[in-house]
Amino acid sequence: MDSSNPLWAVLAYGLAIMTSALLLRWSPTIQRNLEHSAQGRYSSVDGLRGYLAFGVFIHHTAITWVFLHTGAFEMPSTRFYAQIGLASVALFFMITAFLFWGRLLEKGREYDWLAFAVSRVFRLYPLYLPLMLLVIVSVFYIQDWTLKDTPLEIAGQILAWLFFDRPDINQFPQTGGLIANVTWTLSYEVFFYMALPLFGMVFLYRSDWRQTALCLIAIYALYQVVGWEHSLKKHILMSFLGGVAAAYWVRTPRLLAWSRTPVAGVIALVVLMAVLTLFRKSFAFFPLLLLTLAFSIIASGHTLFGALAKRSIRWMGEISYSTYLLHGFLIWLMLQRLPLGLPLDTREPLVFLLLAALSSCLLIVLSSLSFLYIEKPGMAAGKRVVRRLRRRTRTTSQVEPE
């Protein structure tokens, strides 16, 4: 097994897509969910999500291969396995900015900020909280349920985890490694969500210079508060600009029409392959510019010759948050923890490959279950909360003052 060989990444994608296709075939519930979710959505962007979330899984699997041989969690030495994770995260940030800035452009001052705020909380936390509980239980199980820190210190550590930081719990080294430290991206997402109304007032709801100045100060304050433990990096935040640019791109008729041509599809594929194979970084100006071009073409509706339109891929896109959040724990369990009890030597290429292949299939199954029974009920609960808050607001406004 050569760590620079992309063949096993192709194999992993094939297994994941096959698993997704089989679930769609066997489960009427999944079929109904996919049909319902397709209404009023950017289907090509949904398909892209499926590739991206699984790409991060492949990236962290490659990092685990390096760790098992060196004892250090380091970026894969090959560009492909490094970039398949980094570029995927950059494109995820573009998707976030594209969708929400696009809605802001459409709704203007009528944007429903209450629904936005509640929906984001109920989107992030219903799955994150059980995962956090799994991490805490795993840590104490490995430590034979002994306290190495005081209860107050552990409470502070858990509180930090609630806000997507990853301090070691009860002195367990590299606790964040149990989930591949994936929650670092959620801090960037949260900053974008909180800053969005302020950016809207600066660029869309212009009033006077004083409002603009206050909003810019508030954005800077948010930048400091959200990144108080680990500073938010400006070159990573730049990726959100790619999504904003794409929101304007798809609203330009000439660019929209060109983006749906075969030539545009070829350009998008070439650009994506160039970023994956020619660069060591994704969060730099030129690779982000290339990714913005490719993403704008995809957001315009190009399916890259059907690669983004397959139902199995769109289902992988639907469950992408579960895939992203759960894959690190699954990798730790399957490739680091499970072999200790069997025992298996995961430094052996064939053993590692077989367990990674099994993990590829399990990840899609687990992500499908967590989406159906945790994520979706959580999103539905968020909508109910919004309706209750609106009813309460209307009732209060109808009560006349004495």
TrEMBL record:
InterPro entries from the UniProt entry: Acyl_transf_3_dom, Acyltransferase_3
One MF term in the entry's GO annotations: acyltransferase activity
TM annotation in the entry: 6-27, 48-68, 80-101, 122-142, 186-205, 262-279, 285-309, 321-338, 350-374
EC number: 2.3.-.-
Domain of life: Bacteria
Domain Acyltransferase residue range list: 43-365
Enzyme class: transferase
Keyword annotations of the record: Acyltransferase, Membrane, Transferase, Transmembrane, Transmembrane helix
Coiled coil: none
Name of the protein this chain belongs to: Acyltransferase
